[in-house]
Design a protein that fits this description.
The protein has about 140 residues and is mostly helical. It has five helices and no strands.
């Protein structure tokens, strides 16, 4: 009987989270609830852009890689310009997000320079670092 109540409580919490769509971990990173779609679309653009960029580099299609690097860079600008003052994030969380997005943008800049210089090995290495910076952010902030 002693284990019944903790199990019941845990089950209730899970049901609450499932039915209310409460976040399981992390917090959402949106300016406002209406910007959720734009943020998700931008992150999808970043993911697909990196995939296509790596493919173009491996095919030695550097003109396409240059175009894709610009698209990835433009998408990253949207994430870097998010105004978090209206978000649900605390000041400390906002500062952490700013730090993580600046790291991502710095890595994208390094990757873009490598693309412009025609350095395929550096581009691939830096694209992995960009993905790593995305993963670091998603460890802290929710990814749906």
């Amino acid at each position: 009987m002693g284990r019944f109540y903790p199990v019941l409580l845990a089950g209730s919490v899970v049901l609450f989270m499932v039915y209310t769509k409460a976040p399981v971990f992390g917090k959402e990173v949106y300016e406002t609830p209406s910007s959720e779609v734009k943020v998700k679309d931008t992150m999808k653009t970043l993911q697909e852009g990196l995939d296509n960029l790596e493919e173009a580099v491996l095919k030695d299609d550097m003109p396409m890689a240059v175009k894709l690097a610009r698209e990835v860079d433009e998408a990253s600008h949207y994430i870097c310009k998010l105004n978090l003052s209206n978000s649900e994030l605390s000041k400390k969380e906002q500062q952490e997000f700013v730090k993580l997005r600046e790291d991502m943008h710095k890595r994208i800049d390094i990757m873009a320079v490598a693309v412009d210089k025609g350095l395929p090995d550096v581009v691939i290495e830096e694209s992995y670092k960009v993905r790593e910076s995305c993963e670091n952010c998603h460890k802290v902030f929710k990814k749906k």
